[in-house]
Amino acid sequence: MSLLHLSFYSAFTLSALGLALHRTHLVSALLCLESMMLALYLALSAWPVTTQTPSSSLMPMLMLAFSACEAGTGLAMLVASTRTHGSDHLHNLNLLQC
């Protein structure tokens, strides 16, 4: 395994662990999701270089577009939950009370 692959795997794993273990604020959860998307984008961008195949730039661009949509939706949810509940703590958000 090359150093490049190890860094992508470790970045994705650390952000997934951060999402699983530090679930107190919605901002930290969104930041962990964004770092996971960044690791996936970098891995998809570097994949044609490591396999020496012709460059296919469609997949990284689609991943980047979905990541931007996910970030916009997450920020809209953050603003809406802060306005209705008063804070961004995840323990305040309960689906049974909606």
UniProtKB/TrEMBL annotation:
Keyword Transmembrane helix: yes
A GO cellular component entry from the record: mitochondrial inner membrane
Main location: mitochondrion
The name this protein goes by in its record: NADH-ubiquinone oxidoreductase chain 4L
Purpose: Core subunit of the mitochondrial membrane respiratory chain NADH dehydrogenase (Complex I) which catalyzes electron transfer from NADH through the respiratory chain, using ubiquinone as an electron acceptor. Part of the enzyme membrane arm which is embedded in the lipid bilayer and involved in proton translocation.
Organism classification: Eukaryota, Metazoa, Chordata, Craniata, Vertebrata
Any single biological process term in GO: ATP synthesis coupled electron transport
Catalytic activity: a ubiquinone + NADH + 5 H(+)(in) = a ubiquinol + NAD(+) + 4 H(+)(out)
